[in-house]
Amino acid sequence: MRPHLTMNDQSHPSEGEDHLSDDSDAAGGSGKSGNCDRDSAQQQILELVIEACKHPLGSPRRGRFLDKLIREIVKSGQLWKENTPHYEEALQRTWIYLSRNLCEATTAKQAYNPKISQITTWLNPYLKKRLLDCHLKQQQERERHIQNQIVSLDRLSDKKDIKYAENLRANPDVSFYLEELLEWIETDPNDELKSRHVRGKPEINCQVLLQRKCLYGQTIEEIAKEFGCAHSTLYQLLNNDCRHLLQQFSENQGYQTFTIPGVPEQ
Questions:
Q1: Over 80: is that where the pLDDT of 110 sits?
Q2: Backbone φ and ψ of 71, nearest 5°
Q3: Under CATH, which number does the domain 169-252 receive?
Q4: Given its phi and psi angles, is residue 77 left (phi above 0), alpha (psi -120 to 50 degrees) or beta?
Q5: In this predicted model, what pLDDT tens digit does every residue of 115-164 receive, in sequence order?
Q6: Of 19, 91, 99, 212, which is most buried, counting CB atoms within 10 Å of its CB?
Q7: Start-to-end C-alpha separation, the chain
Q8: Residues 180-194: pLDDT tens digits?
Q9: Could you give the CA distance from residue 158 to residue 240 in angstroms, rounded to a whole number?
């Protein structure tokens, strides 16, 4: 069932607006222009939704309007955006979700309803969930890789292997450690990670650096390019501050030191 869409004028001038002085009009002009631009963009998006829903699912005509709709959504600047390795993958899955559930619900419980929300308000939660799926998948793959590197204790026999087995027993359970480590990095309960940052740039801090290293698997060079700083600056932050906090966390959790995924040993 295709939704019945209506377009209403959302402009509600405040009382006394006609009596504003010339100076007030000049001062508020840019704000009004910005609001008008946003209203115009939302109106155009709504019109494209209406046109797309006039045509059957899977038809070339609907496909052409969906392409135009996607371009307008991106152009609006209101779609969730983040600089992470899996963003494009999550975004493509979001467009598929849009095409399947815009006019009729084929994979969602309900189709998009413009009377309830703007289209980006509808899409952004789905996009964020797909990003989280990608991050968790990458984390699980990293854990499997680490587990595969651990020799099974049942297969160890000679003295050399027994000594190695004793060293393995001294290490924490990798899965539990990773889970606790990533939760600590994400929540930063005492704000200690945020407090250690590049001088004069609080946005480049240990939490951000460890998120991108341990969770997203980015290199120092990629992170430096993202923030527009020298990679040597990030190495200094990692080795002088972040590594100390990681060591402190390990000891507080009762773990011995071992290599942190994504953070090379000195």
A1: yes
A2: -60, -40
A3: 1.10.10
A4: left
A5: 999 999 999 999 988 988 888 887 777 666 555 544 333 333 344 444 43
A6: 212
A7: 62
A8: 777 888 888 889 999
A9: 40
